Amino acid sequence: MPQEATACIVGELASRGYNAEREAVTLIASAEDPDATLAAVVDATGADALKVTAEDVRAVQDATAPRGERSVGGEEPRDGTATTADEHPPVSTGDGRSQTRSSASDSNGSSPVETGGSENGDEDVLDGAQGDAGTTGAVTGAAADTPAESAADELAPRERSADRSTDQRSVGVENDMTGRSTGTGEYSDFVSVFRDRYDKLASKLRGRVNHRPTDAIESMAGGSEVALVGMVNDIRSTASGHWLVELEDTKGTFPCLVMKDRNIAELVDELLYDEVIAIEGTLADDAGIVFVDSMYFPDVPRTHEPSYADRHVQAALISDVHVGSQEFMHEEWDAFADWLYTEEAEAIEYLLIAGDMVEGVGVYPNQDEELDVVDIYDQYETFNEKLKQIPGDIDVTMIPGNHDAVRLAEPQPGFDEELRNIMSAHDPRIVSNPSTVTLEGVSVLMYHGVSLDEVIAETPEHTASYEEPHKAMYQLLKKRHVAPQYGGHTRLAPEEKDYLVIEDVPDIFHTGHVHKLGFGKYHNVLAINSGCWQRQTDFQKSVNIQPDAGYAPVVDLDTLDVTVRKFS
Ligand code: D5M
Ligand code: FE
Ligand code: ZN
Questions:
Q1: Where are the alpha helices (DSSP H) in 156-273?
Q2: 394 and 279 share one domain
């Protein structure tokens, strides 16, 4: 079946507020007259149905087929199938729960009039920067389990909101390297990727220092004031406790000495190998070493002004769903998906998922003991079911993570065709890790976050910790690179260019991986680490990591304010 036909059917159903089982889409696409079948299915499906099932399609096909061709049981459709709009019984979903669209979702159980979504009284809206002081104050429970079948509800159109229109939406993607991988793992690839990194990051530092290449510095007179832009090649402490930082540029390397009693010595603690910095200092008498006076990072300018959407519209940012793990939080996910149908959530038009859709297979030692679904393809099938619960009119973008079935080395291309087909029901936009997606003018750098473990392990507690994951994100913004260190914990694949450089300052930086919720602003960039949908694993227990599971941070794209919804 052609991919476009399926996408078309999914799109058509989604525009009417329906999700669809993959098999249902396949049945419609392979019908003699797909358009007529689609129209008949839409006509026949109950007003409260959230999802078109294969049974719905079969019932319609049976009903329209000549008498003699009806299948056994075709005249007795189960509840919720082949009903007219007047009957609208709730449709039983795959997991046996009965779902109805709910408009009464505030804590009082009353039916609020339509609002902008985040203006309901039971919600705390926090400016992102306040997340620094702790995120718990921003958290609200969503009362998604109060389905109401008011008369108005029964007559309401299936869309989540009567005036929702996709016309105002705009989504752009930059830096998606899916299908553009050129790396062969040869030495020359490493040369070009590091060269590209150096060129891009050095250009951000050049305006700030009057630098000279390393070979020119070697021939300068002792005592000269010099500046150098280089990649951190080595960091060593000397016998007397000073720091020797070796910087490398395209011409060679040069040793730079940071005295332990200088203020800048604490910046050495923040350095990671292979990041690009600039220094200014004084050349020693024999011109063999520079005594460092100042250190500069490519950084985000303090004057950075973010862009905002022109209307009130929100994006929910999540990650680390880990479907297939015994610890995957089915009920909390269901509550989240249900809540998205409520009026409180009606401004949410975008959903971003920053990797680890599934638990995967063989990612960590003994991981198989904690698997609920052991086959990787079955895990994605199950994930697809979870995705189908999300309202069809929400625009979904996702990137892979280290548990997903793509290459582990970063940048990770978006899922292959086979996995895309499995996850096709909601027609998600699948891009590489990292990628930048721009929602109505607001750019969101999505990166799964494996390097955060490294930033947290290798820099001081006050710069980055699991309790404040957004601060580790600040370090990446400061270095203008999502995974600076090569050869450590984070695996990197050399490509012709360095896709991991943060070339343009994003308005929002979204990561996951560490399973901790945290957000804050760094030079006006909103950094959000989005928690997870997996309860504490045995490994996390052993290292005393308490995951923040079952939260959905929601960003107002017109203000960049954050509201956190709790479903656990
Ligand atoms: O990793 C979730 C978090 O837990 C992340 O900070 C890495 C850490 N983690 C989890 N399992 C392990 C093992 N077995 N070894 C080392 N670190 C681990 P995620 O990859 O998203 O599950
Ligand atoms: Fe994860
Ligand atoms: Zn991960």
A1: 187-205, 214-218, 265-270
A2: no
